[in-house]
Amino acid sequence: MMAEITAESLRPNAERLAADLKALAEYTDSVAPGWTRQVFSDPYRASRQWTRHHMDEAGLETHIDAAGNIVGVLPGRNPSLPVLMTGSHTDTVHGGGRFDGMVGVLGSIELARTLREAGLQFERDLVVVDFLGEEANPYGISCIGSRSIAGVLKPEHLDRTDHEGNKLGDVMTAFGLNPNQAISQAWKPGSIHSYVELHIEQGPLLERRGTSIGVVTAIAGIDRLMAQFHGRPDHAGTTPMDGRQDALLAAASAILTIEREACGAPIHGVSTTGRIESSPGAFNIVPDDAKIWAELRSIDPAWLGEVKMRIAQEIAEEADKRGVHTMVEWLSDQAPVQATKLVQDQIAQAADAIGLSWEAVPSGAGHDAAHIASIAPMGMIFVPSQGGRSHVPEEFTDISDISQGVHVLGAALARLDSTENPR
Q1: Mean pLDDT of successive 10-residue segments in the chain (423 residues)?
Q2: Which of 31, 86, 186, 356 has its CA 20 to 30 A from that of 414?
Q3: Which residues, 6+ apart, have CB-to-CB distance to 408 below 8 Å?
């Protein structure tokens, strides 16, 4: 007779989980700062071999799909039922940390290992996924793996190029993937009973309030843009200030416009200009060309829709005053995504059952969960980030907090396992 699954029976091995995080952190780019492991890099390739082997050792039946997702399955008692899915990603930003994404993947593997070692089994199959390439990349398409599973990776995405002219599709092929199959392998709606992702908060709210668990209510939408500015080169010493067509000054003004709009968001809004270029790049020549790359994020879809039009108009008007021509190109967009209410409730009730404090929080960061939500009920669990720091080498979450998050993940999935229809 199969043992009964209780919240206590799902308590993870924190010491083992800490060792796993340390082992994965060894796979980094030796010439880059922090724990850098970017998609398609050699360290990323090596780390995924380790991750798949780690899944195998935990008792998961693994394969790598056409988009490069590492998929592990822990069989349930009734394989005909829609599956429970969890996971995250193991790629990082340049100069990133060792917890963003990794906590969700290794925590899910630890959950599978805990179930197997205790002789416990969900009714449904448990699917653990290390999604390929969640972080932003030079091709402007984040969440490559989860987009593929959700059916929103498109042929035009494969034609996106980096600054050297390399196409995403060609780079995927060189990495051993099959991009043509990746755009046609979407999982059918209804095949996933529910998806729950464990992640560090990447912000300061939980730590400031002394709360153990964040129950995510929504994932912010993201709009990314590139703005180009064309002015006129002139001698920097002899051209009067009121006679210049300075493209770089127009770009600087645009950056402040983007910041001002985000500061005025009525509910939640942030903006970041992460890159700027200008030419000819000399002290003694007025810049004639400039480009900026920026993004806006919010959980408010109405504001995101309105602000795009305002920003493009304001940038053009301010540049025109300087005699500079502009072109604004929106590179990608992702609408805000609401977490499924019943999944949120099950996460909160799981935290209550374990005796952990929790509160409802929005996510300002993007996640694979936002794409899986298009084909399955979705929820996310946050654990505190020390100082709210993330995407930096100083990113840190205490192993006790991570272990509690894994515990809640298991308890929430156990509750969802017996739920008929989370929608």
Answers
A1: 79 98 97 97 98 98 98 97 98 97 98 96 98 93 96 96 95 98 96 98 97 97 95 98 97 98 93 96 97 95 93 97 96 88 98 97 95 97 97 98 98 95 77
A2: 186
A3: 198, 213, 347, 350, 351, 354, 356, 381
Shared-domain flag, residues 166 and 265: no
Beta strands in 67-107 (DSSP E): 70-74, 83-89
CB 69 within 8 A of CB 112: no
- Predicted TM-score (pTM) of the model is 0.90
Angle in degrees, CA 26, 30, 35, rounded to 5: 50
- Closest C-alpha to 215, from 351, 397, 404: 351
Q: Where are the alpha helices (DSSP H) in 264-398?
A: 301-321, 341-354, 369-372
Task: Report the amino acid identity of residue 320.
Answer: D
- Amino acid sitting at position 156: E
Determine how many CB atoms are found less than 10 A away from the CB of residue 287: 26
How many helices (H) and strands (E) the chain has is answered by: 13, 13
Determine the Cα–Cα distance for residues 210 and 5; give it in Å rounded to an integer. 29
Contact 183, 148 (CB under 8 A): yes
DSSP state for residue 285 in the 8-state scheme = B
CB 86 within 8 Å of CB 122: no
- The whole domain housing 191 covers 8-220+336-417
Q: Residues 192, 55: one domain?
A: yes
H or E element: which one contains 95?
A: none
Nearest residue to 224 via CA among 146, 314, 136, 160: 136
Radius of gyration of the chain (CA): 23
Residues 216, 230: one domain?
A: no
Q: How many domains does the chain have?
A: 2
Which of 383, 47, 411, 15 lies closest to 216 in space, CA to CA? Answer: 383
258: its two tokens: 């983007």
DSSP state of 267: S
